């Protein structure tokens, strides 16, 4: 969610865009496996027909992570007498380069994608191969995939993508300030408790308790949808029809307005861009923010004291429960590949839990385990900031919840984000003084018009 989801629907990796400074300036050279090497050690090693495979991947946080993934791909190629070229495509160029390759009818055999919406889009155009057999072979390993990913990568009963990491947006919380206010370092578990805690912590202008983004920006979209979900509202219903205007959404927007009226949100928040809440937390001017884990990476590199006095927690539960926007990066196979079976077997190989954990360690925690039992590895248990991640992912949701993935629905929701309809709803209440019910109705009507334009269920 937040800026990540906004960029995903534009076809750009948001997780990496948030941390572009950490990525190499240019893509590493391709990694190529030898054409002939000893076989063995690979699940279903005989499945490759020997035809060369080309694999495209997005840049990770670290060059070492990119190299390790390339090495794993090389090892599979050596064991299967198959030449494999792994190309790490520069993030800013990936969408355009992939689109051009598809247009030229020369896509890679295997491709890494950062959003389920892209997988469904390509699959709906009959570009991707059925990988249901790989899903069946991998999804139950190591405690199984997190359940939220199951509906994201299939059309009907057919799967077209295999997730290899888990993404979510937690609440960042200052444990030192929580302890001063309550005597415990436990983050608030409900939105009502959060409000009470914020009232105790609030000390303007030094500290505004809740760095909630109210600016006309994608982060406002993510922050607001999280509160709407937790109070029982949704953007669409089970059929994919616009469902924003509901008592639950009105309750959520009234809750946000209450925080603003109580002055626990920084007064400049309505003018923030997507860096506003990051900066407020990093400068110790806010006790709580909702944001992807880029703040964690920043603290590791820049402020160990803040890291030791902060945690990532589940977004406090509202009237309906605790939910967060969650996604995943994944692998897919193009139908045009001359070695579809080998491509699928390579993905099976890469989804080995031990290989994935080695990769997670190399990228410094940016990629979280897709397998539920993966969280038991010492790499994760030794980092108290991640102790709440399992709860976050158990309540993970995609933006289309509760409707199943659909290309028209994803396209409509993408435009809802690019047009900032939800942030405009919030700004109408906070900045323009519009009544909450009127603002919700106006946003609902705007969504209906977008859905009609995309042929989605309005």
Structure, explained:
The chain is an alpha/beta fold and 458 residues long. It folds into two domains: 2-166 and 328-387, Periplasmic binding protein-like II (D-Maltodextrin-Binding Protein, domain 2); 181-325 and 402-453, 3-Layer(aba) Sandwich (D-Maltodextrin-Binding Protein, domain 2), CATH 3.40.190.10. Helix content is 42%, strand content 11%. It has a six-stranded mixed β-sheet with strand order 1-3-2-4-14-7. A four-stranded mixed β-sheet has the order 10-11-9-12.
Task: Set down the secondary structure blueprint.
Layout (H helix, E strand, L loop, with lengths): L1 H8 L4 H4 L13 E2 L20 E6 L4 H17 L4 E6 L4 H10 L6 E4 L2 H9 L7 H7 L15 E2 L2 E2 L2 E2 L3 E2 L2 E4 H8 L8 H11 L6 E3 L7 H13 L16 H15 L14 H7 L3 E5 L3 H9 L1 H5 L1 E4 L10 E4 L2 E4 L6 H11 L2 H10 L15 H4 L7 H6 L1 E2 L9 H12 L2 H10 L5 H18 L5
Task: Outline the biggest β-sheet.
Answer: 6 strands, mixed
N-to-C span: 22 Å
- Structural class, by secondary structure, is alpha/beta
Beta-strand content estimate: 5-15%
Oligomer: single chain
Shape: globular
Give, in spatial order, the strands making up the sheet with the most strands.
Answer: 1-3-2-4-14-7
Which runs of at least 5 residues are low in confidence (pLDDT < 50)? 1-45
Helix content: 40-55%
Assign the CATH class of the largest domain.
Answer: Alpha Beta
CATH superfamily of the largest domain: Periplasmic binding protein-like II
Secondary structure: number of strands: 15
Overall pLDDT: 89
């Amino acid at each position: 969610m937040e800026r990540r989801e906004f960029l995903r629907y534009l076809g750009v990796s948001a997780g990496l865009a948030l941390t572009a400074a950490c990525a190499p300036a240019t893509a590493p050279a391709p990694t190529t496996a030898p054409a002939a090497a000893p076989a063995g050690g690979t699940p279903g090693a005989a499945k490759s027909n020997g035809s060369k495979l080309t694999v495209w991947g997005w840049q990770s946080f670290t060059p070492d992570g990119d190299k390790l993934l390339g090495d794993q791909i090389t090892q599979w190629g050596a064991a299967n007498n198959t030449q494999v070229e792994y190309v790490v495509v520069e993030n800013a160029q990936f969408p355009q380069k992939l689109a051009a390759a598809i247009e030229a009818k020369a896509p890679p055999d295997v491709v890494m994608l950062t959003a389920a919406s892209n997988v469904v889009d390509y699959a709906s155009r009959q570009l991707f191969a059925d990988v249901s057999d790989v899903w069946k072979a991998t999804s139950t390993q190591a405690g199984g995939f997190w359940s939220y990913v199951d509906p994201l990568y299939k059309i009907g009963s057919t799967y077209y993508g295999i997730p290899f990491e888990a993404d979510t947006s937690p609440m960042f919380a200052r444990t030192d300030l929580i302890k001063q206010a309550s005597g415990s370092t436990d983050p608030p578990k409900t939105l009502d408790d959060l409000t009470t805690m914020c009232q105790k912590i609030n000390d303007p202008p030094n500290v505004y308790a809740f760095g909630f983004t109210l600016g006309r920006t994608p982060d406002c979209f993510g922050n607001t949808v999280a509160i709407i979900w937790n109070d029982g509202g949704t953007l669409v219903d089970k059929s994919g029809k616009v469902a924003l205007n509901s008592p639950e959404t009105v309750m959520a927007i009234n809750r946000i307005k209450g925080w603003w009226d109580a002055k626990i949100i920084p007064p400049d928040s309505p003018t923030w861009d997507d860096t506003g809440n990051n900066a407020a937390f990093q400068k110790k001017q806010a006790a709580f923010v909702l944001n992807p884990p880029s703040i964690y990476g920043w603290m590791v590199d820049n402020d160990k004291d803040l890291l030791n006095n902060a945690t990532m927690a589940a977004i406090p539960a509202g009237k309906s429960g605790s939910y967060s926007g969650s996604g995943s990066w994944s692998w897919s196979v193009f139908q045009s590949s001359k070695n579809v079976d080998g491509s699928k077997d390579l993905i099976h190989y890469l989804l080995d839990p031990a290989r994935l954990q080695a990769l997670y360690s190399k990228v410094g925690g940016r990629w979280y385990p897709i397998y539920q039992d993966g969280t038991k590895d010492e790499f994760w248990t030794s980092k108290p900031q991640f102790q709440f991640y399992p709860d976050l992912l158990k309540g993970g949701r995609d933006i289309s919840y509760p409707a199943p993935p659909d290309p028209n629905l994803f396209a409509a929701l993408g435009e809802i984000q690019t047009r900032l309809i939800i942030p405009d709803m919030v700004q109408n209440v906070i900045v323009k003084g519009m009544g909450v019910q009127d603002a919700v109705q106006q946003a609902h009507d705007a969504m209906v018009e977008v859905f009609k334009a995309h042929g989605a269920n309005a």
